[in-house]
User: Fold this.
Amino acid sequence: MTLTRTALSAAVALLLAACASTPPTPAPPSVPAGITAPPPATPGTPGAAAPLPSAEPPPRPSLGLFSRIKAPDTVEPAFELAATGVQIFRCEPGRDGYRWAFRLPEAELRDSRGQVLAHHGTGYSFEHVDGSRLLGTIVEHDSADNGQSVPWLLLQTQAFGHGQFENIAYVQRIETQAGMPPAQCSAEQVNQVLRVPFSANFVFYRPR
Assistant:
């Protein structure tokens, strides 16, 4: 009987030693009542980081049968940016009195998320935030729907630098709103500068 009790005591001691050497398993964090805990995010499932989808090129704008600012068939739309800014004029003498003469535009160009990607300035130039630039020349124009908005334009461009603008060959200015000065100024206003707010969309074309 003594031997049996001794063996039993030794077995119990070994069992207690094994339990003491095994670290306890941490309990999962508690979740408030009424809230379902989401599963861990894994690649390919909602909640996991994923690259943003690439923007689709815009379609050619609908310009009407007799529009003069249609881009050639040798190019295709690459992207479209929305511009807000001012058209800058200066009061100068002319044949029929004094008039507001156009000097240059100043505008910021934004993508569909409202992020500023380019600036539009003197010489119908464009400068992208990546450093690439365009210098435009007016090829044709169409009158806007009302006399208070600047004309729609087709620009042929020369590109400089590497970036989003390096392959752009044409730019259209469409959907213009406002930007026109009063019909005349006065002698007292000579050399004064007038900044008229405007907005427009610019469609950038690259070779096919």
Q: What stands out?
A: The chain has one helix and eight strands. Residues 79-207 form one domain. The helical segments are 2-21. Residues 1-54 have pLDDT under 50 and may be disordered.
